Amino acid sequence: MTVIKQDDLIQSVADALQYISYYHPKDFIDAVHDAYQREESKAAKDAMAQILINSRMCAMGHRPICQDTGIVTVFLTIGMDVKFEGDMSVEDMCNEGVRRAYTHPDNVLRASVLADPDGKRANTKDNTPAIIHMKLVPGNTVDVHVAAKGGGSEAKSKFAMLNPSDSIVDWVLEQVPKMGAGWCPPGMLGIGIGGTAEKAMMLAKEALLEPINIQELQERGAQNRSEELRLELFEKVNKLGIGAQGLGGLTTVLDIKVADYPTHAANKPVAIIPNCAATRHTHFVLDGSGPAALKAPKVEDWPEITWEVGDSVRRVNLDTVTPEDVKDWKTGETILLSGKMLTGRDAAHKRMVDMISKGEELPVDLKGRFIYYVGPVDPVREEVVGPAGPTTATRMDKFTRTVLEETGLLGMIGKSERGDIAIEAIKDNEAVYLMAVGGAAYLVSQAIKGAKVVGFDDLGMEAIYEFEVEDMPVTVAVDTKGESVHKTGPQTWYAKINATEV
Questions:
Q1: Which residue from 239, 247, 315 is spatially nearest to 51, judged by alpha carbons?
Q2: Of 351, 353, 463, which Cα lies nearest the Cα of 402?
Q3: Which residues of 185-207 are buried (b: 16+ CB within 10 A; e: fewer)?
């Protein structure tokens, strides 16, 4: 009988979550670096450069890779010859580990979990509760996988109950373009096939815990149907030309994982769950000898990448920019922003639109200003703000026309594409939408020289801040004429990639 002390599991979960907040898995870094070296699209190559630079900075500075530090999932495989010593349930132990990790004073992680999800949506303040899955098996150890899944990538999950004769490949190729860029490619797709609806989703999620090894499979060849699907989908998804951050390019996925399970004769359940550029998971085993010891990677594991903006870059002063100035900006153009910008995301936008409808005065004047869709991590030590990468812009689409027309807002900054309703509103109001790289939150935060809350303080990380920035890198994603780089980029690269086929 193996005795696992209560605090050993608690501390191991806490340590694992801190570890994955700033260390990418080495297989992920190697895969992104390989994709970076092969990439021919300048915009996609620049995005991957920022992801790699950000990753190295986070490993050295022990700060989060992404401002969205995720909702925690814990997978426990518990041996039947294990006894836990303590007075807490296993779920409570895991949640206490989450609590310790997310409130760690040296590396505070963003609390993103909200209770009463269709009601008050009140932040639980410590990112609990986690999503916990347990299996009881023969053995005398506790095998644990810990993952922290960002909301942007989780939001792009797909499920369908296909007919037995339907093509899974066709369905996946139909769904991936619909996912847009909000899942922050390049990343992985986990695909679960079979079982029941919930089993297929579980298979897809667990598949994402596997290492990136598609090149090994390509070398040895497929040995079963799941591996055949991996190879076929890896090739065909990348031929879509979506590319890093949806900007168009050669690499959309770094690997595709497929897991299956027997299913009912009348059904073919299939699920897709993507993992983003902030791939965060690790594994440890408790055997009664104490908490898990997670070995820190070597800094040499990270490539030394430099990101040069070039002489042609446009530098913009946000304090003096005018509506006439932005008419010259072209999609795909790199811009360095300096000056003062506001922030605001879902909760702030909803509250502003509600106030506008009631004729109430907003806490800040948005006329002629830029708003950044972000919910930053709390600062530590000398930081003015913690990691502050962009959140998915499409969630603000339904508010965009009202905010632009009623406030005179000039520009927005976020990640991924805008939907048609937002693009039309941007065009009609001759505004602009700029894209910052998702998965480069710590790098972005280095451009922020000042931060203060100026509205809706009660919303926590969703409050309205005023940031003072210096040379913050962004890409023009939608110009004043309504042209979107997230449409033109993938279209261009789809044509280029598929024109090379014999």
A1: 247
A2: 353
A3: bbbbbbbbbbbeeebbbbbbbbb
Parallel, antiparallel or unpaired: strands 314-317 and 334-343: parallel
Establish whether the linkage from the previous residue to 129 is cis, with ω within 30° of 0: yes
How far is Cα 427 from Cα 211, in angstroms, rounded to an integer?
43
Q: Is the peptide bond before 490 cis (omega within 30 degrees of 0)?
A: no
AA letter at 213: N
Bond preceding residue 291 cis, omega within 30 of 0: no
Are the C-beta atoms of 97 and 10 separated by less than 8 Å?
A: yes
For the segment 363-390, what is each residue's pLDDT rounded down to a tens digit?
999 999 999 999 999 999 889 999 999 9
Neighbours of 400 (CB within 10 A): 26
The length of the chain, given as a count of residues: 502
Residue 79 has φ and ψ, to the nearest 5°, of: -70, 145
Secondary structure of residue 401 in the 3-state scheme = helix
Q: Which of the residue ranges 90-94, 308-312, 487-491 would you say has the lowest mean pLDDT?
A: 308-312
With contact defined as beta carbons under 8 Å apart, do 281 and 190 qualify? no
CATH 3.20.130.10 residue ranges of the chain are 314-489
d(CA 375, CA 442): 13
Six-digit token string for 202: 């579980």
Distance CA 373, CA 389 (A): 9
Cβ neighbours, 10 Å, residue 461: 21
| DSSP-assigned letter for residue 407 | H
CATH 3.20.130.10 for domain 314-489: yes
Q: Using H for helix, E for strand and C for coil, what is the string for 248-291? A: CCCCCEEEEEEEEECCCCCCEEEEEEEECCCCCEEEEEECCCCC
d(CA 207, CA 201): 10
Yes or no: say if 13 and 97 are a contact pair by the CB < 8 Å rule. yes
DSSP secondary structure string, 416-442? S---HHHHHHHHHTT-EEEEPPTT-HH
What tokens does 86 get? 């303590």
CA distance 225 to 203: 16
Scanning the structure block, which residue is given the tokens 């520009």? 411
Contacts by 59-62, CB closer than 8 A, 24 or more apart: 59/22, 59/23, 59/24, 59/297, 59/299, 59/302, 60/299, 61/22, 61/442, 62/22, 62/106, 62/107
Please give the full DSSP string across 83-129, using - where no structure is assigned.
EEESSS-HHHHHHHHHHHHHT-TTS------EESTTTT-EE-SS-PP
Count CB neighbours of 21 within 10 A. 27
DSSP code of 382?
Answer: T
The pLDDT tens digits of the residues spanning 251-273 come to 999 999 999 999 999 999 999 99
Helix (H, G, I), strand (E, B) or coil at 82: strand
Which two three-digit tokens encode residue 256?
């595709």
